[in-house]
Amino acid sequence: MLSRVFGFGRRPFDSLSEQEILALAISSEEDDGRIYRAYADGLRDDFPASAKVFDEMAEEEDGHRASLIAIHQQRFGERIPLIRREHVRGYYERKPDWLVRPLGVERVRDQAEAMEDQAHRFYLEAAKRTSDASTRKLLGDLAAAEKAHQSLAVRLGTKHVPDDIREAENTAERRQFILTFVQPGLAGLMDGSVSTLAPIFAAAFATGDTWQTFLVGLSASVGAGISMGFTEAAHDDGKLSGRGSPLKRGLASGIMTALGGLGHALPYLIPDFWTATSVAVIIVFFELWAIAYIQNRFMDTPFLRAAFQVVLGGSLVFAAGVLIGNA
Q1: Is there a contact between 45 and 173 (Cβ–Cβ < 8 Å)?
Q2: CA 20 to 30 Å from 306, out of 108, 124, 132, 249?
């Protein structure tokens, strides 16, 4: 870890020979081609037009790599030294595609342009350190190509992803995000916030004991979170419904359910009963309005209707808990 952070055990870029610079460029182009193909594979099912963009970008990297190998063979022979990005201090790094998943369309487009910009700057520096005319010309040509390719994702996007397709892909991506994370999370937040109101406030007014009330709220919240998480994950594998990974949906639903209940259970760690209850009531108010906002923002529910439904339902459950606790 320290070697990665401080560069221990890495070669300074200035110490590389011309052969090593070529070898580094070859391995970098190979890695970038693989990354672009991984992006294409990750996008192909849901965003086939954008996948074509990254297929062509991978082919561009293959062409660069072939040119570099040819000049290496001409000058240094067949054996290419093993030197990669992680061996050079201060050299830009690439994250493998599995570290940046899920692959959002806009995210990978931005990443592609950043990769081309980094490659452009590398070739400029590499050309400065090369004395051979043919090698220097190739590196300069590649720097110019990478500079032009900074907009490659945009230019290829114009060819493969016209505005109507891009809009459709962005809409599909937003829909998938809502189905996989927002909808299960919202259902969990509503269940955790509303369903735990009655037992928590019933326990509070029945016992007048803040610690016992907190334990009731903690158990109700955690139990509801586990139940909602498993239910969401188990009832739909997402293959036919298109709702995405059951694990992601289950985590979103379970975590938000638990948080919804804990929000008004945690104030009962305050020893004074009325202070704790006042804080809990204030938190409930903000929870319910937050649910209404999320419904309006992501589910296109009119805000006033969402607020009326959530606040009315929450108020009824809250009143039931207070009445039962005072019975």
Answers
A1: no
A2: 249
Give CA–CA dist 127/18, Å, rounded: 9
Q: Is the pLDDT of residue 93 over 70?
A: no
Whether the pLDDT of residue 51 is over 60: the answer is: yes
Q: Measured on CA atoms in the order 142, 148, 153, 155, is the torsion positive or negative? A: negative
Structural contact between residues 187 and 167, judged by C-beta atoms closer than 8 angstroms: no
Query: By the 8 A CB rule, do 66 and 138 touch?
Result: no
CB 44 within 8 A of CB 38: no
Contact 199, 321 (CB under 8 A): yes
The fold adopted by the segment(s) 2-161 is Ferritin (1.20.1260)
The first and second tokens of residue 129, run together, are 């350190």
Helix (H) or strand (E) holding 88: strand 88-89
Task: State the Cα–Cα distance between residues 314 and 190, nearest whole angstrom.
Answer: 9
Instruction: Give me the residue spans of the domains in the chain.
Output: 2-161, 176-325
pLDDT over 90 percentage in the chain:
10
Structural contact between residues 216 and 280, judged by C-beta atoms closer than 8 angstroms:
no
Torsion angles phi and psi, residue 91, rounded to 5: -75, 145
**Cis preceding linkage at 102, omega within 30:** yes
Ramachandran sector of residue 221 (left: φ over 0; alpha: ψ -120 to 50; beta: rest): alpha
Q: Which residues sit opposite 88 in a β-bridge?
A: 11
